[in-house]
Amino acid sequence: MNPSLISKTLFLLSLLSFALAGNFNQDFDITWGDGRAKILNNGQLLTLSLDKASGSGFQSKNQYLFGKIDMQIKLVPGNSAGTVTAYYLSSQGPTHDEIDFEFLGNLSGDPYTLHTNVFSQGKGNREQQFKLWFDPTQDFHTYSLLWNPQHIIFSVDGIPIRDFKNAESRGVAFPKNQPMRIYSSLWDAEDWATRGGLIKTDWTKAPFVASYRNFNANACVWSSGASRCGSSTTTSTTNGGASSQAWFNQELDVMSQRRLRWVQKNYMIYNYCTDFKRFPQGLPAECRMR
């Protein structure tokens, strides 16, 4: 290939990658915190902060019905005990759907707890918790949700940690009808977050700060009562076109299943599907799926 053509192609690809990375000014609204949340670097960085008076949060301008959503997050460093950084999808109302990442802070040197949950039609109680195989406060790491009609796959740096499968055939509701926004917040949960509330927030270390960058949603945008996935229009949050929607039917391949088993064997610290004391009448139906 002609060197000038290669150079031009690489330039165009770099522009495309930049466009798909999203811009916080265009894609999100700061919803609370009285100035504690900030969008910086021309929309390429967002920070949330927490002090004794208040935390802060933001939400996406768009609602989505299925998609592959990525966010790079650097969590509160140092003594983060009592703080929670929540990053999740949610609809509204008493029968809401929700897909959660929550990061529970800890004392300096102790690992964060990564808490996951799935709500469908208002019912949750599907918690799985993990320790991470790296320090999530030292650098940005990518936290991803792949949500299609058959699977909700939680991933960290491309490694799947959880696969919540559609079990409607067993009478288990699955999130597939309610569009959801992306939310994130940094808040004080010292009453329960660290060892059941035994360790309180050290406010001398405030403000606590979490940072976000490189948001990307390859997703179906909900607008005017309909979900738009196949449009030829590409925005900073939605990569349209059928060729970009392999995620819509995606499931874990053999290698990804091995990685999932590795994480769950070595880093899972709680799984509701093995908590027989919590469910004396029998585990939930989705827990009995192979």
TrEMBL record:
A Gene Ontology term for the protein's cellular component: apoplast
Protein name per the record: Xyloglucan endotransglucosylase/hydrolase
Keywords attached to this entry: Apoplast, Cell wall, Cell wall biogenesis/degradation, Disulfide bond, Glycoprotein, Glycosidase, Hydrolase, Secreted, Signal, Transferase
Glycosylation sites: 106
Signal peptide: 1-21
A GO BP annotation: cell wall biogenesis
Ranges of residues in domain GH16: 18-212
Post-translational modifications: Contains at least one intrachain disulfide bond essential for its enzymatic activity.
MF terms (GO), sorted A to Z: hydrolase activity, hydrolyzing O-glycosyl compounds; xyloglucan:xyloglucosyl transferase activity
Catalytic residues identified in the record: 98, 102
